[in-house]
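Translate structure to sequence.
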C-alpha cells in the first residue's frame, strides 16, 4: 500500500495540488470540545459558521452538525483514511491596488481556489476507484483541525491554518476512502505568533476576541456572506469588503514574503462547484462598487456594495447619485442599507463645525 500511497500523492500533485497528506479516520473529539466552548463564549449559531453542507446532513442543531463533522465515519462508515489536499491560493488577483480610490470592492481571494481543489479531489477519487477503493470527496471533516494535528500546518492567532511555504493562503478539501494508508506526521511549522498580535489588533470588528479564538458573529467573512441583519455599528467597520475578508491574513508576518503564483486556469467563483459562490459569478477580479449596486446583482451583494461605498472616503457625487437612483426600486430589506449609506456619505461631505438641519 505504500506504493499506492506514493502514487496517489504524485497524481494529486500532477493535477495541481501543492499539499497532500493522509490522516487516520478517527473521531476528533477535541474539535467538538473546542466548538462547544466557542458556542458558549460567543452565542454563535450554526448559520454564523457558514455551515453550507448542513441541509444534506442529519440534524439541524449546532452540536449535531459538528458531531457529524468531527467523525468521518458518519459520512463514510467504512472509511480508513482521510486524504487532505491543499492548493496555494495567493495569485496576482489577490493583490489589491487603489481599491478605495477606484471605488472597488474586495473579496476573500482563497475562495476563488475552492473550485480548483474540488476538481483535483474529484480526479483523485476517480484514481482511487480505478484501483478498487471506494472514496468520496468534500468538506465533511474539520479540515484545519485535522491538518494542524498531523502537521501540514499550524493555527495562527487568527484561527487560520499557516503552512511552511504558502502562508495561510491555502484552499483545503478532503477525500475519505476505504483504502488504509499509514498516516502522515509532519514537523509542524512555526507560526512566529509568540509576541505578535497584529491580526487581533487589525480586526476592525473585534471578531478576534482572544488569541486563536474567532467570534463568527463579528467576523466580516461570514457577515458579508450571509443574509442576517447587520447592525449599523458593524457596517461602519466593514471597510470595502463585499464578500469575505482577508484583513487578518494581510497583516500576518507569515504572508509577508509570499510570491504570487500564476492564476490557475480553473480558478474563479463557480456556483456549480461551491455552494458559497452562488452570489459571486463573474467577480474574479475586484469589482466596481457602482456596478454592484444595480438590480443585476443578488441582494446580498447589493447590500454589501452600499455598505462599502458608505465606508469609502473617496466616494463622491457619483456614488451618492447611484445610491439615490437605485433607492426607489430596492426591496424593503435593502432600503435601510441604501438609506444609511446615503446619509453617511452626505454626512461625510459636511465641513467640520457645521451641523445638519432636521427642520
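Result:
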Amino acid at each position: 500500500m505504500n506504493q499506492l500511497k506514493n502514487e496517489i500523492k504524485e497524481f494529486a500533485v500532477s493535477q495541481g495540488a501543492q499539499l497532500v497528506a493522509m490522516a487516520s479516520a478517527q473521531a476528533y473529539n477535541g474539535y467538538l470540545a473546542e466548538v462547544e466552548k466557542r458556542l458558549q463564549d460567543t452565542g454563535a449559531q450554526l448559520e454564523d459558521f457558514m455551515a453550507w453542507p448542513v441541509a444534506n446532513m442529519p440534524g439541524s442543531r449546532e452540536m449535531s452538525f459538528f458531531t457529524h463533522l468531527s467523525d468521518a465515519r458518519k459520512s463514510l462508515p467504512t472509511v480508513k483514511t482521510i486524504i487532505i489536499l491543499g492548493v496555494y491560493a495567493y495569485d496576482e488577483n489577490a493583490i489589491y491596488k487603489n481599491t478605495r480610490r477606484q471605488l472597488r470592492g474586495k473579496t476573500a481571494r482563497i475562495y476563488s481556489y475552492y473550485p480548483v481543489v474540488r476538481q483535483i479531489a474529484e480526479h483523485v477519487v476517480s484514481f482511487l476507484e480505478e484501483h478498487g477503493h471506494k472514496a468520496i470527496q468534500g468538506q465533511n471533516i474539520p479540515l484545519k483541525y485535522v491538518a494542524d494535528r498531523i502537521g501540514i500546518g499550524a493555527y495562527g492567532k487568527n484561527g487560520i491554518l499557516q503552512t511552511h511555504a504558502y502562508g495561510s493562503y491555502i484552499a483545503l478539501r478532503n477525500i475519505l476512502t476505504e483504502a488504509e494508508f499509514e498516516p502522515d506526521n509532519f514537523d509542524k511549522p512555526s507560526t512566529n505568533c509568540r509576541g505578535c498580535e497584529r491580526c487581533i489588533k487589525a480586526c476592525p470588528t473585534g471578531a478576534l476576541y482572544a488569541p486563536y479564538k474567532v467570534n463568527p458573529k463579528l467576523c466580516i467573512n461570514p457577515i458579508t456572506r450571509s443574509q442576517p441583519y447587520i447592525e449599523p455599528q458593524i457596517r461602519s467597520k466593514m471597510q470595502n469588503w463585499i464578500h469575505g475578508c482577508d484583513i487578518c491574513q494581510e497583516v500576518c508576518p507569515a504572508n509577508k514574503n509570499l510570491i504570487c503564483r500564476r492564476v490557475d486556469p480553473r480558478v474563479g467563483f463557480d456556483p456549480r462547484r461551491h455552494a458559497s459562490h452562488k452570489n459571486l459569478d463573474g467577480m474574479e477580479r475586484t469589482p466596481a462598487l457602482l456596478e454592484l449596486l444595480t438590480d443585476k446583482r443578488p441582494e446580498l451583494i447589493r447590500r454589501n456594495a452600499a455598505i462599502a461605498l458608505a465606508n469609502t472616503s473617496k466616494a463622491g457625487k457619483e456614488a451618492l447619485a447611484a445610491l439615490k437612483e437605485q433607492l426607489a426600486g430596492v426591496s424593503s430589506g435593502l432600503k435601510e442599507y441604501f438609506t444609511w449609506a446615503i446619509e453617511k456619505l452626505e454626512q461625510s461631505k459636511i465641513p467640520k463645525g457645521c451641523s445638519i438641519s432636521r427642520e
